[in-house]
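fwd from M.: "can u put these together and see what the complex looks like"

so here's what she sent:
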Amino acid sequence: MHTSSTTDALRRRVGIMGGTFDPIHIGHLILGESAWQQFSLEKVLFMPSGNPPHKKIRDGASNEQRVEMVRLAIASNPHFALSLEEMHEEGYVYTKETLRRLRAQHPDTDYYFIMGADSLLTFDSWKGPQEICDQCILTAAVRDSMDLASLDLKIGQLKEKYHADIRKLESPNLDISSHNIRSWRKEGRSIRYYVPDAVVDYILNEGIYVEL
Ligand code: ATP
Ligand code: MG
């Protein structure tokens, strides 16, 4: 994305943390906080994506439950906000369209799209990667077994291919995923400290992820 350097200082910076959040966990929260700090963001929008019925994970949480867990998880952080921009029941949600809508509504804002390395690796197969790169700054952090050199390589490739503005996000590599949490729950293992207390309570009260 190209912005004029003379006006950069006047522009607002907002992060977008997209995901399924089934459930939200500390990996997501720490990623958002790291991006907020590193890029001096005004706020980070947590944007759970709506699952069309055929895409829903079997025995995953409902759209309403995923939204509620995000709400509970970010409640104590004044620069985190919930956005329902991608929460549709019908059809697929495309990042390029979300960005187009947001930018039309907020022409004074630069958007920083926050993700883990696994998302960056599949970026070419997203709908409209060029349009996404034209409309936001991508920020990616290492995740899982991906080392920094591989992340740098991928960033270099995408920069060349799409003339993208991609920044490496310096965030600790936390070995945690929603998938792990769902399976631990199923096995009756504790998920405490991997998700905020209020979310643990919510999962237990609602009986989510017990059967797969
Ligand atoms: P699942 O296991 O169901 O795929 P997930 O833990 O990968 O869930 P998502 O909702 O798919 O969570 O992820 C949303 C975004 O957060 C993605 O860009 C993903 O790369 C990033 N992310 C999730 N967990 C981590 C983590 N532990 N470290 C870095 N990035 C993460
Ligand atoms: Mg994932």
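replying to her w this: The mean pLDDT is 91.
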